[in-house]
Amino acid sequence: MDRIPILKLRGLLLVTIQVDMHDRLAMQLQDELTTRISETGARGVLIDISSLDIVDSFIGRMIANIAAMARVLDAQTVVVGMQPAVAITLVELGLTLPGVRTALNVDKGMALLEGTALITDADELDAGYAD
Amino acid sequence: MSAATEAAIPRLLSTHQSDLLDEWVREQATSLRSTSKIKESELRSQSAEFLTVLQQATQGGNITDIQGPTYGRVRDMLSDVSRSRSYQGFSPTETAMFVFSLKRPMFARIRKELASDAEGLATVTWAATELLDRLGLYTMELYQKSREEVIARQQEELLELSTPVVKLWDGILALPMIGTLDSARTQVVMESLLQRIVETGAVVAIIDITGVPTVDTLTAQHLLKTVTAARLMGADCIISGIRPQIAQTIVHLGVDLGAVTTKATLADAFRRALDMTGQRDKLNKPRA
Q1: Which residues, in sequence order, are bridge partners of residue B211?
Q2: Which CATH architecture describes the domain B166-284?
Q3: How many CB pairs under 8 A join A and B?
Q4: Average pLDDT rounded to a whole number, residues B111-133
Q5: Fewest CB atoms less than 10 Å from the CB: which of A64, B64, B241, B244?
């Protein structure tokens, strides 16, 4: 059975969806990703959907859910590499993924996450000295 | 319909082929006299070919069902004729006359052949009339269809032409929109913009609506959809070129553009885009 690999990359988790997302796979990804976030204490999650050509309302909602769950676990989610057709479909379905950050590719997504992650780290450092 | 009637037409076509051809070509030449869109020799060869294929088609006795298999070549021939005539700028009448002008020579032959048999004359004339009418109508249908194809193609070309996506700067795209935005056009605009975002890796896209005469709720909704789709892909959109009247209309209509960056002019939007991509200072320096 297909599995979606979750790679740990420094403080980030990288999820690359390279197979057709079916419903069970999406549920499984949701399970595994939340587990990995809490295990690794990752501060950022990159979901690369550049090879995803077809999307339905369920998968769209799943992406939004995963982002929301990650946020609850204090990790920023960036969805990267969405195809034009997928973007149009999601908009037509009314799933505009509010609160989910997006980037054109993994590189830009990582820059976005590192930018925010560095700032929060610095804040924590300052707080540590103040104590 | 009796077998005699069915046999009469193909017999006529084969025995009097050359006479029919001469008269028919003359007939056509008079109806097309004012125009010189087609050469006499070409007309003659077209007509000769048509008479031959028509004779072959009617040979089997089928003189009513022009959609039947025996009429395959007749239909192909008519489709070529009507298509080429529609491209050459023939009027509908001129195209239809190709088939209809065959009536006079044909009826003259029938009258001569069946002069003594009044009943037979009426039946065969009626059968011939029906056959030629069907073929004429078929020609017109094809003519109409090829004209529609031309219109559809032009519309498509217009769509493509009217939505260029321009690269303004590293990572900045501009989409100057001109003309009224309807659903079909917005779809093309949206697709071409998103496609270009993927290709160029642009971070900011400026949608300039200076050339859009009116904005209604539908147009505004289309714009918002485009902006949202671009955001899903990871690019920010700026809408620029909003004229005072349009700003008023948008507010009166109660359209919420709150989540979208809007600028009055393309220049303002460009400046903002440079800020967003952190390239503002580059503008003042000469490029290395």
Answers
A1: B178
A2: 2-Layer Sandwich (3.30)
A3: 56
A4: 86
A5: B244
